[in-house]
Amino acid sequence: xxxxxxxxxxxxxxxxxxxxxxxxxxxxxxxxxxxxxxxxxxxxxxxxxxxxxxxxxxxxxxxxxxxxxxxxxxxxxxxxxxxxxxxxxxxxxxxxxxxxxxxxxxxxxxxxxxxxxxxxxxxxxxxxxxxxxxxxxxxxxxxxxxxxxxxxxxxxxxxxxxxxxxxxxxxxxxxxxxxxxxxxxxxxxxxxxxxxxxxxxxxxxxxxxxxxxxxxxxxxxxxxxxxxxxxxxxxxxxxxxxxxxxxxxxxxxxxxxxxxxxxxxxxxxxxxxxxxxxxxxxxxxxxxxxxxxxxxxxxxxxxxxxxxxxxxxxxxxxxxxxxxxxxxxxxxxxxxxxxxxxxxxxxxxxxxxxxxxxxxxxxxxxxxxxxxxxxxxxxxxxxxxxxxxxxxxxxxxxxxxxxxxxxxxxxxxxxxxxxxxx
Length: 422
Fold this sequence. Notes:
By secondary structure, the protein is of the alpha/beta class. The protein folds into two domains: 4-31 and 281-411, Beta Barrel (Lyase, Ornithine Decarboxylase, Chain A, domain 1), CATH 2.40.37.10; 102-273, TIM Barrel (Alpha-Beta Barrel). It has twelve helices and 21 strands. The protein has helices spanning 18-25, 34-47, 64-71, 82-90, 107-116, 126-138, 177-185, 206-225, 253-264, 277-280, 313-317, 407-411, and strands at residues 4-7, 10-13, 16-17, 29-33, 53-57, 76-79, 98-100, 120-123, 143-150, 172-173, 190-196, 232-234, 270-273, 284-295, 300-304, 323-325, 337-341, 350-356, 365-368, 390-394, 397-402. Helix 9 (253-264) links the parallel strand 12 and strand 13 (270-273). Helix 2 (34-47) packs parallel to helix 9, helix 5 (107-116) packs across helix 6 and helix 8 (206-225) runs parallel beside helix 9. The chain is globular.
């Protein structure tokens, strides 16, 4: 469910018409709904066992206003870089509710996280474990650690967002888990607190989750028999959202929560979760204006002012996003097919191929739906195109939460050396 609905013939974000925002902010722009963010967080938090840590995945949407909205509901943060750590703290998320994931944590990043006093490090390799141990000892600290164990489970999702099979860069292979924990136990700067597992993203079937969690439960029993104090279990994120609304919807959080409760009931662990897409995806849209309608012999092209630099998911993953006309079409109106493309000089700058849409013309507005996760965070200034700004709506109020960069600001990022006359 989301809070983008037609009212009086115009698509609105809660109580704010997207036509008004387009007039005030210009296009393209991202728009996020506070009501949707809050609802999705509360639904997920209410579905999983009480007392669980809900650490929102900052990589899904790192806008400070979005993070502050979730922090006020009690959300923690899952971060994968020093920059995301800094953002989470700046948004008001308490350090003791932050988990640090990722395969390539640098010494500088780990030092900052140790100094902040984060909840835990999700460690993904023995070299990382050794580096963290040395840093912790140099700072007179012990680092709270879970080891990310790769359960070798196929998440049945897109190959580029699968993380739990044997041949990915993520995690420690299941067969090496015991020796990795034995090594960690010998390190004076490391405090073993639990186990971490994360098998992928946009998973639409509960079976891979259950298979992975059952395997991890067996591992927890083995590790405790080896003498390790396992009190926490981080189950990651990955529950999918409906991008194509005419397809079978993914399991809802209630079904996921019931499965987790049943499987982990006897594990004796405090649970943590890292949802990102589930909370933010349907809470955001990318609004764009039609520049031209180009008529071809075999197809028609709808050329819009948003590009793959603003939303790269279709080019990167061949992902599907629903596209709606901001002005509500009349019932029974024609729906010609278009290739919806952007202005970036790449053939892959394609949002939809052969998509049936209301008849549109130059100047009309469209909304690319389910764009609140892995949208603005993955944007770039390719083709010297400043990324789309971001707007947050709450009821009938709205505010620009990341402004559009000017050309002067874009150019000012570069510096000409002295020998070139700088």
